[in-house]
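Hello again,

I reread your note about wanting to compare the complex against the isolated chains. To keep things tidy I'm splitting this into two emails, and this first one only covers the full assembly. Below are the input lines as submitted, including protein chains and any nucleic acid or small-molecule components. They are followed by the predicted structure of everything together. The single-chain runs will come separately.
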Amino acid sequence: MAKDKILVIGASGQIGVELTLALRKMYGNANVIASDLREENDLLRGSGPYVSLDVMNKEMLHVQVIRQNITQIYLLAAILSATGEKNPNLAWNLNMQGLLNVLDIAREEQIKKVYWPSSIAVFGPTSPKQNCPQQTIIEPTTVYGISKYAGEFWCNYFNHRYQVDVRSLRYPGLISYKSSPGGGTTDYAVEIFTEAIENKQYECFLKADTYLPMMYMPDAIRATIELMEAPEEKISVRTSYNISGMSFSPQEIADEIKLHVPDFSINYKPDYRQTIAESWPQSIDDTVANNDWGWKPEYDLKKMTKDMIDNLRN
Ligand SMILES: NC(=O)c1ccc[n+]([C@@H]2O[C@H](COP(=O)([O-])OP(=O)(O)OC[C@H]3O[C@@H](n4cnc5c(N)ncnc54)[C@H](O)[C@@H]3O)[C@@H](O)[C@H]2O)c1
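Full-complex prediction:
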């Protein structure tokens, strides 16, 4: 393990910060290089090396991979669902070309392992709403979902054709208190906590009864690391694995928050993100991930809410 050198691309984002810190704990600070287009996140400062990097600049990326003797790449740079609908071309370009640049370099430099997240956004209105299975009808209606589904098949292609060991998870909406979310449809489930603590009031951009699959960040980080550390023969899915955490509506999370913040109130003003949310499943079946590499979530709504509030109050 000590010989591995990891490059995290998009390390200043919601997942990147926590994943970089977790990888630094496992592999040693000096062996995990954080990189991003924007400046280094404050939570990363002083914890290890940082380089400024645009994943669209393939030449510069290639130079860094060679110069730093990189053996594993985690690619997190992307444009998320809500932002993607505002600028479809930009989302398609970054989400596709960024991935192709990394996969090409991984093939040329024989990178040991690549991680690239997909999303429950691959599913569309024709997918089953409850316990949506690993393999089912997949007809995404957002540019983000289209880019993630295409990306899954690029990963599968590079694995089968060039033996690149690329692994992927279809994350649900991720909830965290350390770094802010980056323009997704499930961002309300993070904002609601900070608003509850700071202002005791939240205006939600989704309707009260909109159920979506969600996951607490510690589960997402653990899932990512467990997948990446699993022996190669355990990985049967080379597109992307369904993983499940919990499922709730804005009304349910508001009720749970009220147990900790009794004078909290919520009102609803649905916007364009309601249509995106309604195109996705409400819950996910992750049997395949469970069977292949033993995935099991730890946090439900109650446990996550308590942990979020305790941490935000400190
Ligand atoms: N957060 C979620 O709820 C969620 C859910 C499903 C999937 N995902 C996926 O997980 C990954 C990470 O998501 P996140 O929530 O951390 O996103 P984020 O927007 O918080 O972070 C992405 C980071 O990528 C950086 N970036 C953007 N363009 C770049 C470029 N050209 N070169 C280098 N860096 C660039 C941004 O500056 C940002 O720091 C994405 O692929 C996303 O689609 C996230």
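For quick reference: Residues 88-108 form the longest helix (21 residues).

B.
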